[in-house]
Amino acid sequence: MGELRGTHVPVLLERCLELLAPALGRGGRTVHVDATLGLAGHAEAVLQAHPETVLVGLDRDTEALAHARVRLARFADRVHLEHAVYDELPEVLDRLGYPSVDGVLFDLGVSSLQLDAPDRGFAYAQDAPLDMRMDQTRGVTAEEVVNTYPHPDLARVLRVYGEEKFAGRIASAIIRERERGRITSSARLAELVRESIPAPARRTGGHPAKRTFQALRIEVNRELAALETALPAALDRLAVGGRLVVLSYHSLEDRLTKQALADRVRSTGPIDLPVELPGSEPTFRLLSRGAELPGEVEVTANPRAASVRLRAAERIDPQARQRGRTDRERYRRRVKAMHQPGTGSTTESGPDPRRAPGDTTDEEGEGT
Ligand SMILES: C[S@@+](CC[C@H](N)C(=O)[O-])C[C@H]1O[C@@H](n2cnc3c(N)ncnc32)[C@H](O)[C@@H]1O
């Protein structure tokens, strides 16, 4: 196995560490889940920064796990590496005996190892067998998708997962080509896509095959279905004060993340009630304002960071929040009463009524 450290630069590493620190560094043993371990760049930095933290690292790619194992060898006594799809997280945690965790990181998409491997078929720029499975021990390959899906299914995959405007034309070209012979190589597929896209459109939006390859990869690995299940499962396992950070690389992943967080940061009670009904309070607060983007310096140094979108949230204690609200309300009423005529109070002598103690805006991301 070759040395890979130099070829993979963890994306938004400092920001991820900063966001996870309050949850992982709060004293005693804490548990961090890296749901997409890859080459363990983020995981290694977390273990270094938090000597008390236990890592549960998941990856569906056995090759990535083997590299991660070597890289994390010096932390072996507090590392569990698991060959699993991230929607299997609850079963993994149950088996390891961790009912709740303190940090979870999802760094979605493919790793440099997968993209750069000449034989795995993820890259349109290299000729390889059309595989694209992150887990090469199971599942259907891109070759099977391309050579067996009927036209409507193929076009849907390209349109939905690749946001490809010319999905229908590309699907038709694939069907015509496979009638002549099986499509087996990534270079042939990339060429077919290029020929299907009208010349003026080829000049914009990067390599013409980029969207088709992304779409096939998502389909082959059932990426969105796994994410849709995994995000709520991970949020459910976070202890109060525990934090989740998600790095997405295309709009479909980011939309699922945004939705999963939105479901937890708003009240589920009727909007016209002045008080929260028990059990309807928000259970998380956002730590990021919208989606955070990488800085120019990072993108220049690591072009793979260009499309990243970061979102993060922290589990809160709804009861404590409710108590905080009631305290603030009582305080406001007291201050208001002091300013009623006849009470003898003035603004100079009283505290600032605009700032109640602990009255921070916690609905929208406030950073760390
Ligand atoms: C972008 S890489 C992670 C890189 C890692 N953060 C690092 O610093 O080296 C994404 C990894 O997630 C894995 N992965 C993608 N989807 C997965 C899933 N549904 N379940 C488990 N692992 C997955 C891929 O195999 C890949 O190794």
TrEMBL record:
Intracellular or extracellular location(s): Cytoplasm
Residues involved in S-adenosyl-L-methionine binding: A40, G41, H42, D59, Y86, D107, Q114
InterPro entries cross-referenced by the UniProt entry: RsmH, SAM-dep_MeTrfase_MraW_recog, SAM-dependent_MTases_sf
EC number: 2.1.1.199
Start-end of Basic and acidic residues biased regions: 316-330
Keyword Cytoplasm tagged: yes
Methyltransferase found in the keyword field: yes
Gene3D superfamilies assigned: Putative methyltransferase TM0872, insert domain (1.10.150.170), Vaccinia Virus protein VP39 (3.40.50.150)
One Gene Ontology cellular component annotation held by this UniProt entry: cytoplasm
Protein origin, superkingdom: Bacteria
Annotated GO biological process: rRNA base methylation
GO molecular function, one term: rRNA (cytosine-N4-)-methyltransferase activity
Keywords: Cytoplasm, Methyltransferase, rRNA processing, S-adenosyl-L-methionine, Transferase
PROSITE patterns: IQ
Stretch list, region Disordered: 316-368
Its biological purpose: Specifically methylates the N4 position of cytidine in position 1402 (C1402) of 16S rRNA.
Annotated NCBIfam families: 16S rRNA (cytosine(1402)-N(4))-methyltransferase RsmH
Family: Belongs to the methyltransferase superfamily. RsmH family.
Record PANTHER family: 12S RRNA N4-METHYLCYTIDINE METHYLTRANSFERASE, S-ADENOSYL-METHYLTRANSFERASE MRAW
Protein name: Ribosomal RNA small subunit methyltransferase H
Annotated organism of origin: Micromonospora sediminimaris
Lineage: Bacteria, Bacillati, Actinomycetota, Actinomycetes, Micromonosporales
